[in-house]
Amino acid sequence: MVTGMQTPVFIDDLPDSSAVGSRKSERYRQVRNRALAEMLLDEAVTWHERPCPACGQDRASSRNFSQALMPFQRCSACNTIYAARVPDQRHLDQERLQMLSDLPPEPADSAKSTREFEFVSILNWLRLTEARHGKPLNTVAEYRFSSQAPSLPQTVERIGSTRDWTFLPLSDSGSANFGDLRDHLQASSPDAVLLYGEMDRIAEPAQLLRVVRANLPRGSLVFIATSCADGLEYEILGADSPSFVPLDRLNIFSVGGFSALVEELGYKAIEISTPGRLDAVILQKYFTEIEGSDVPFWSGFFRSANKDRLHDLQILLQRSLRSGVMRFVLET
Ligand SMILES: [Zn+2]
Fold first, then answer.
1. Ligand 1 geometric centre to CA of 259 (Å)
2. Domain range for 208
């Protein structure tokens, strides 16, 4: 399925492990888990059970991934990890808006923001795809990531994108069934849509993809970045992975599962990559800091690996589509 597809390698330099430590603080994890517990107790929240959100395989034939607060499954057909019961999207959005308003603001000097690297990487991704496919992307609609990353619009402006960007933040009105996005697509027909980190945290990812495809001209491009269940971090650590915050990871698609889903919905996948840079560094940090965290082969590997060895491993993971972050470019 992915044979012959581009699998670009993005890494140039490994980040420092100190940059990883603050990424998902224990405090953040506790806040999110408390929010989840409150939703579980809130009678106004509607929950629904579901099969694998990627390939539709019945939950009964999947494996248990985690029971923490709510059950997660690992699909035995496509390797996707998913919450077996999800809250309704309206309450998810309300809770997320609340969480975002409680977070400390980003540093004022966005040039020094640790997110700058990420934003530049997104802009390069669009530019390289545009060059590769000879398709000008003059207008881009970004959905909801700017709520998570408020300095994104300024960075895009400052780095001199010649594109015309529209940022559609998470809102508590008009976003039912992604109607805000639908209205924008119908009114503007952008050349590209960017969905960054959104697939992980919504109750019905297929529904969002349907809205996008139904309201764009054929031949438009959709850029999607999401967590990847095939990543070495999830393979080794499972639910102990520092990236696994249940409320933010209702869907962790595998490469194969997400490929099957988008094909089923009528998209054509034109690029697949797993450009994650952090897997090796996260795993080394885990095995050197957590007492008694012994896994055959890997704990010894990571405890003794120097920076060159970690770098080699990270490149191998990217090349073999085994990093914890994946990117898809789809054509409508
Ligand atoms: Zn599946």
1. 11
2. 17-105+115-331
